[in-house]
Amino acid sequence: MGVVNALRAVAADARLFDATGKPAVVAYVSESAVNLRSPGNSWVMLCDARLGCGPRTVLVEAHRALARAVSVGDTVTVGKTSVVGDAGEIVTWEHATRWRPSPPLLAGDGLGARLSIAADIVSRHGCFLARPLISGPVLALRDGCLGANPTAIQRAVADLAGLGPGLTPAGDDYLAGYLAALLHLATDSPAALTARTLLRAAVNTIEPGSTHPLSQFLLGEYAAGMIPQFLDECLRALLRPSTTQRLNARVRRVLRHGATSGTEMMLGILDAGADFRIGSHPQRTDTGRSRPETPTRRPGSVEALWHSTERIHP
Question: Which single residue of 53, 101, 114, 215 has CA 20 to 30 Å from 226?
Answer without folding.
Answer: 114
